[in-house]
Amino acid sequence: MDKKYELNIDVRILELLGPNLYTNIYYVLAELIANAYDADAHNVYIISNDDMIIVEDDGKGMSYSKGEITKYLKVAAISRTNESDSKTALNRLKMGRKGVGKLAALSVSEEVYVMTVSSGEKSGFVLSRHPQSESLQSIPDESIHFEKITGNGTAIVMLKPQYHLHKTPTAIKRNLLKIFPAISEDFKIHIIMGDKEDVIDSVDKEIGRELCACILLGDKSSTIQNTYKNEYSDVELFVKKPSKEFPIVLKNNDGNEKEYRLIIEGWIGAYKSTRGRKLESSDFPDNFISLYANDKMGEFNILPVVGANRLNESYVVGQLYIDLFELSELPDMALSNRQGYKSDDPRYIKVIEYVKDELLPNIIAKRVAYAKAKKDQREKGKIDKQEEEERSFRQSVSEFRKNTSAQVAKRIVGKESLFSEEEVRSAVEDAINANANILGLKPHIDQQKKKLFISHTGRDKDIGDIVYNMLVFNNVPPEDIIYTSCDDEISRVPQGMNIYDYLRKFFVDSVSDKKMYVLFVTSDNTKTAWGAMVEIGASWITRVDHKIFNINSFRPEHPLNDEAMWNTILRDEDGRLSMTKLNCDDFCSKVEQVCDVIGYSHKTREENKEKLSSLIVVE
After folding, report:
1. CA distance readout (Å), 43 to 40, 87, 92, 406
2. What tens digit of pLDDT does each residue of 324-367 get?
3. d(CA 379, CA 490)
4. Cβ contacts of residue 517 below 8 Å, gap of 6+?
5. With 0-12 CB in 10 A as exposed, 13-18 as middle and 19+ as buried, what is 586?
6. 583 neighbors 569 (Cβ within 8 angstroms)
7. Tell me, what DSSP letter sits at residue 187?
8. Segments in 414-490 forming alpha helices (H)
9. Measured between alpha carbons, how far is 381 from 443 in angstroms, rounded to an integer?
10. Cα separation, 171 vs 56, whole angstroms
């Protein structure tokens, strides 16, 4: 006899699928909003009360007599397989495909009322996590009504919701825009909480203003371009590129191979700061790169996949659109809960590779450039402020001298006889004390100054790095050091400033009596390096204290203090650095002496010798 095998799925499968299908209420709302979008709605109302959440739309509704309700109730029935059925009557690209989005509301409530009106025909039924049979409880026509809709439409009523929306409409708007950006004047979302109503009728207009850098692909996200403002015009922080296209060969639903164009549009940016947005948008992380297809989110955040957990990634945000992900003639690559894509799909792999290898590194580089420009501007502001205070101080010094000498002269002239030296000194001291308050600006000027300068040639950077690292190890703040070859930009000369103009502010122009301390790295390269010779001359003219770290047998000469013992470091032909134990001890001693002079608490000798031994070979 012929055997027949039939798959019999119990309706209680809803009890298993319902509460586990979606992990976040906003994903549920996105499914219900997508259904409204596919029904050609122009308005969707999200009504939140203590005992229910209603999603109501003014779409075409569903007719029982035309079989639309029956089609709706076919769980997991694929809604589109080719391009002919991939668009709505209003020519919108359909978002639904799997036929399980109708179960989304069961993730929120055990019982969900579905009420719909199509051309005056009313229909209604109850979806339950615990159905007793295949026949659903019907809702009488007289009980079918809408809160906001007057004609055709559908309402999904989630009773006694187990998840609740955020308490502020602003946070709800931002969360919805993150996962459902297909908002326009033609498709609005209304958020109603009690007697308050807010409307989402455009994409997030604020996000462009919060970005310090942005890469725009194609014309999909013009709002970002219209609201973004570059704070530093001399740095390229905003780039508009054509959409990215890749040829890719895929098998369609019929199993036939065909070449397609994988087109990536959208944007990726970096926040100026992450503060502020997190205060309300607590349901989703603030940094993300989302993938969308047909204007519906397919995966909220691929940043953990493409990133390397770097600090600058906390500033990254982006929305990328790849409609090929939802092309009806291709196999469905979305996961069943619509919260991700199959990671082995060639389309997904190609997008991940592009974002990981090109897009993410580029935006991080721009974020770094922004941070540097901001730091340089801040540094320039400090220097400008110092120069202004120096000018003011010079005026104060001039006033001090004038007033002091005038008072001394008046006192001397006013006497009828000669004065003793003690009397004149007392008169000068009295006048100086009377005008001392004029010099109150000077201590602040000293605080603005750099305290250490590492003079070197570019070819001797290896030794300069050791000196710098030992200073920082001994609690000298990097911001107090000028080291032009430093890997840390905080100690380099600000971008856009001439190095000699910058150094002159500290060596020559300052009226402060606090001199910079200079550490000279000298070698056979010194005499052929114009910059190093200029620095030696400047230090001699201004009579600054200095110490010398010398390489090999080069002999430092006047105007350096060639009578004091300098430290000697050996470098062989292969560039290997070494020093004797005596020179190791002397190196540490010099660093400690510098710290004592400029007022920093240094490490012990043993700690310094151990640290230095990790930076250079001690023999």
Report:
1. 9, 19, 15, 83
2. 988 888 888 877 655 688 889 999 999 999 999 999 999 999 99
3. 9
4. 451, 452, 453, 544, 545, 546, 547, 594, 597, 598
5. middle
6. yes
7. B
8. 421-435, 442-448, 461-473
9. 19
10. 20
Bridge partners, residue 348, by sequence: none
Cα–Cα separations (whole angstroms), residue 80 to 41, 66, 327, 441:
19, 19, 10, 77
CB within 8 Å of 203: residues ≥ 6 apart: 177, 181, 183, 221, 223
Distance CA 228, CA 575 (A): 49
- DSSP notation for 202-235: SS-SSGGGGEEEEEEETTTTHHHHHH---S-TTS
DSSP H or E segment with residue 454: strand 452-455
Whose tokens are 């300069």? That residue is 464
Q: Is 57 in contact with 43 (CB distance < 8 Å)?
A: yes
Distance between CA atoms of 92 and 38, rounded to whole angstroms? Answer: 7
Question: CA-CA distance, 408 to 425, in Å (whole number)?
Answer: 10
Q: Rounded to two decimals, what is the model's pTM?
A: 0.61
Residue located via tokens 């979305």: 334
Q: Where are the beta strands (DSSP E) in 130-287?
A: 153-159, 188-193, 196-200, 211-217, 238-241, 244-251, 257-271
Q: Are 214 and 235 in contact (CB under 8 A)?
A: no
Question: Tokens in use for 329?
Answer: 């003639």
Strands 211-217 and 238-241: parallel
Exposed/middle/buried for residue 346 (C-beta within 10 Å: 0-12, 13-18, 19+): middle
Q: Mind listing the pLDDT tens digit for each residue in 161-180?
A: 888 888 777 778 878 887 77
**Residue closest to 37 by CA, chosen among 158, 161, 184:** 184
My answer on whether omega of the bond before 443 falls inside 30° of 0, hence cis, is no
Arithmetic mean of pLDDT, 591-602: 88
Q: Read off the tokens for 76.
A: 């997991």
